[in-house]
């Protein structure tokens, strides 16, 4: 079996001014040092991306955006294009986060356009999928995750698929302090990997990193990261402080 490098990504959402973001990343880099065992990505808001990117020079931490528009340029007031992200050395982009899906009405089709565009522009997509509480209680978790994954990845080639990252984020666990049990998370992660085998190949499915997201913190990370199909975390709240972010990176190093 291929061993996948674990990935810890911090999703800072709509938090931190540019100055605060630079201070955080400087503390983070100091706390984790120059390690290569685990891939670490920070995703600050757009206004802080460039400054944070400069702050990361010489470190192994990578830069990601929280969203982007699929087009390369044009009349899309308020949007950011993939080449703009590439120009400031972003390498990753979170797409289809549940907050984008619910508050900004992003559809699977639109998210799919973004995934294809990210790949075309050499940005690594972190495609988010996950069910709401009502969907889980109604027994449709796997169906929802299947639809979001299949639609999100439509038109992605086998060659491209291996580089994609998927984040399973049960909506009811995001920012609520209610973390999925390791069994609940592992079940969905294994299901997603099975789906990737059907959509692409077993070899591709074994290469794709599947992150867990939703109230992941140092206290519950070790148990989650020890699961066979959990390859890292997409972290909101606990990535806003250098100490807890670094503890999560260390938990991933210990679990590798
Ligand atoms: P949380 O957010 O860690 O604050 O629950 C995770 C996310 O939304 O990516």
Describe the structure.
It is a single chain. With 256 residues, this protein is α/β, with parallel strands linked by helices. It has one domain (7-255): Alpha-Beta Barrel (TIM Barrel), CATH 3.20.20.70. It contains twelve helices and eight strands. The protein has an eight-stranded parallel β-barrel with strand order 1-2-3-4-5-6-7-8, surrounded by six helices. Helix 1 links the parallel strand 1 (7-11) and strand 2. The radius of gyration is 17 Å and the shape is globular. The model has no long low-confidence stretch (mean pLDDT 97). 2-phosphoglycolic acid binds at residues 11, 169, 174-175, 213-216, 234-238.
Structure summarized in a few sentences:
The chain has about 260 residues and is of the alpha/beta class.
DSSP strand tally: 8
**Strands side by side in the biggest sheet:** 1-2-3-4-5-6-7-8
Under CATH at level 1, the class stands as Alpha Beta
What is the mean pLDDT?
Answer: 97
SSE pattern: EHEHEHEHHEHHHEHHEHEH
Low-confidence stretches: none
CATH topology: TIM Barrel
Report the major sheet. Answer: 8 strands, parallel, barrel
List the keywords:
single chain, 256 residues, 12 helices, globular, 8-stranded parallel beta barrel, binds 2-phosphoglycolic acid, 8 strands, alpha/beta
Topology record:
Elements: E1 7-11, H1 18-32, E2 39-43, H2 46-55, E3 62-65, H3 82-87, E4 92-95, H4 98-103, H5 108-120, E5 124-129, H6 133-137, H7 141-152, H8 158-161, E6 165-168, H9 182-199, H10 202-207, E7 209-213, H11 218-225, E8 232-235, H12 242-254
Parallel strand pairs: 1-2, 1-8, 2-3, 3-4, 4-5, 5-6, 6-7, 7-8
The protein binds 2-phosphoglycolic acid.
């Amino acid at each position: 079996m291929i061993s996948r490098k674990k990935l810890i990504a911090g999703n800072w959402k709509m938090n931190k001014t540019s100055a605060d973001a630079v201070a955080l990343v400087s503390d983070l880099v100091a706390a984790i040092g120059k390690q290569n065992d685990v891939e670490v990505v920070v995703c600050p808001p757009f206004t802080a991306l460039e400054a944070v990117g400069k702050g990361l020079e010489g470190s192994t931490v990578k830069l990601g955006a929280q969203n982007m528009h699929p087009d390369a340029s044009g009349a899309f007031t308020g949007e950011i294009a993939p080449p703009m992200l590439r120009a400031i050395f972003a390498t990753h982009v979170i797409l289809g986060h549940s907050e984008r899906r619910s508050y900004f009405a992003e559809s699977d089709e639109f998210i799919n356009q973004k995934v294809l565009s990210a790949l075309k522009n050499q940005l690594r997509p972190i495609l988010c999928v996950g069910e709401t509480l009502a969907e889980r209680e109604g027994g449709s978790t796997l169906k929802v995750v299947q639809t979001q994954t299949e639609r999100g990845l439509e038109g992605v080639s086998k060659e491209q698929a291996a580089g994609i990252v998927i984040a399973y984020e049960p909506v009811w666990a995001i920012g609520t302090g209610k973390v999925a049990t390791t069994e609940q998370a592992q079940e969905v992660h294994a299901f997603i990997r099975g789906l990737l085998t059907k959509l692409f190949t077993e070899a591709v499915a074994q290469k794709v990193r599947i992150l867990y997201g939703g109230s992941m913190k140092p206290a519950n990370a070790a148990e989650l990261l020890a699961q066979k199909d959990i390859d890292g975390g997409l972290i909101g709240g606990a990535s806003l402080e250098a100490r807890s972010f670094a503890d999560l990176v260390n938990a991933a190093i210990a679990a590798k």
